[in-house]
């Protein structure tokens, strides 16, 4: 069934395509950061700033293992999100028939199933959110490897971790609220 909708709603999918472009761009930046983070050898004794006389503060090898695992989980999440976004963009650009007529960024009209589009955007956003959470956990592990166990951190270590675990989840909560708001529109 093809439904004709007014011209004002036709521009909304242009916004969807722009949002998908934004997701892909941000995921690409985070993925670049992930690969840079994976080049670090956390088991190198010269890599840590912890004084070797404070053996209580030196993190165990499981922290380094978690660092690598969280990088891989984050990369997988960002890749999932980007692939969903690319698939949606491709689907919009090649759509021939579906529920709704939408205007694509080049001015052509396509027919897109809006439920599938919304579900795909929601899945892509979920992948980005989980990628950011895993990246945050990896960065906390990195701080622990560089500066010592969290229980041993001084002011500088806390100044590195507290904004990370405070600001990133706050921004993700805001992002989820905006995505859910857009999802209901």
UniProtKB/TrEMBL annotation:
Alphabetical UniProt keywords: Membrane, Transmembrane, Transmembrane helix
Q: Which domain of life is it from?
A: Eukaryota
Looking at the UniProt entry, the stretches that span the membrane are: 20-40, 70-92, 121-143, 155-183
The answer to whether the entry has keyword DNA-binding is no
Name-wise, this protein is: Maternal effect embryo arrest 60
């Amino acid at each position: 069934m093809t439904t004709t909708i007014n011209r004002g709603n036709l521009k909304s999918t242009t916004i969807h395509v722009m949002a998908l472009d934004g997701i892909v761009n941000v995921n690409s930046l985070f993925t670049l950061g992930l690969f840079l983070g994976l080049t670090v050898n956390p088991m190198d004794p010269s890599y840590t700033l912890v004084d070797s006389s404070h053996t209580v503060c030196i993190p165990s090898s499981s922290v380094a293992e978690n660092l690598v695992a969280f990088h891989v989980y984050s990369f997988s999440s960002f890749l999932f999100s980007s692939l969903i976004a690319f698939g949606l963009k491709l689907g919009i650009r090649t759509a021939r028939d579906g529920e709704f007529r939408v205007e694509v960024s080049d001015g052509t009209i396509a027919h897109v199933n809006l439920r599938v589009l919304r579900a795909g955007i929601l899945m892509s956003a979920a992948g980005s959110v989980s990628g950011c959470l895993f990246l945050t956990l990896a960065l906390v592990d990195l701080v622990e490897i560089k500066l010592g166990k969290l229980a041993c951190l001084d002011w500088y270590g806390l100044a590195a971790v507290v904004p990370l675990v405070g600001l990133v989840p706050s921004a993700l909560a805001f992002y989820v609220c905006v995505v859910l708001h857009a999802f209901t529109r």
